[in-house]
Automatic annotation (TrEMBL):
Top enzyme class: transferase
Protein name: Palmitoyltransferase
Swiss-Prot/TrEMBL domain comment: The DHHC domain is required for palmitoyltransferase activity.
Assigned EC number: 2.3.1.225
Palmitoyltransferase DHHC domain: residues covered: 98-234
A family per Pfam: DHHC
Stretches that traverse the bilayer: 16-37, 57-79, 143-163, 169-190, 202-223
PROSITE patterns: DHHC (PS50216)
InterPro entries linked to this entry: Palmitoyltrfase_DHHC, PFA4/ZDH16/20/ERF2-like
Family (UniProt): Belongs to the DHHC palmitoyltransferase family.
Catalytic activity: L-cysteinyl-[protein] + hexadecanoyl-CoA = S-hexadecanoyl-L-cysteinyl-[protein] + CoA
GO cellular component terms, A-Z: membrane
Amino acid sequence: MVSSLMRYLPKTGSDICAFTFLLFSIHSIGIFELFIVLPSIYHSQSHATPTGGFSLYYFHVFMGFYIYFNVMLNLYLIITTNTSIKGRMLPSIIRPGWRFCAVCESNSPPRSFHCFTCKTCILKRDHHCTFTGNCIGLYNHRYYVSLVFYMCLACAYSCVLNFDFVYHLFGTVSVKSILTIMFPMISWIFYSGDSMTNVQVFMTSLCLVGFFLTGGLFVYHIVNSINGQIVHERTYNIKTYNLGWKENLALLLGKRWRIAWLCSLIKSPVPSDGLQYITREQYESLKTM
Ligand SMILES: [Zn+2]
Ligand SMILES: [Zn+2]
């Protein structure tokens, strides 16, 4: 079990560092919100509104675990899903749109590209994700977009909770308090808070930076997917596989794309075997028939 999981884990130095940082961020934010922020907010409020504060506290705890579960599930599914050409029946004769990969010494289907870190060709390869140490392709693209979405949601949720917490910490929203959150490294030079306050300020900053980073990533990848493009096709403005936003989303999130984003345990197979894709031209002619 451990050895089989080991082969999916990051191999290069930069991938290991990024993956460790990701795990550290997920768990430190989770622990910070659950054990420091929430008790500090609801400890002071529960005296005024015992029932309302109590149920709201458990609602936040439930939401926290729901988001954490989705983040870890998607991370697990990204690294364990085989989205490469390994194990696929590939033709020995090269077909139109295919190319020969000299490294894999096999014919490679359209939209697949070789990854020199993963040492294989990846089906509908979007990019190599350093933070998970794996390539993002046809079969794990859904989990990647879901991971980014739930991390962005976690950071946004934390920022809202933190606002209450920071207000309580500083007693007011001032230029000093905003600067401390935005630039903790600079503020620590001038700010004479205790070490616990510094940790709290650092965690609040991490949530804020995480929100902008994951938010930007999510928008970038969802726009590409709605346009039916992988990163390579966006770079070279290739629109060959743009079948309209509904079909494009189905290729990303699977046939049950309307609910698939709620949880990655929902079965939602992608309508492709990874070896051929319907082009816009073929799709248009099928519609007019
Ligand atoms: Zn290859
Ligand atoms: Zn890769």
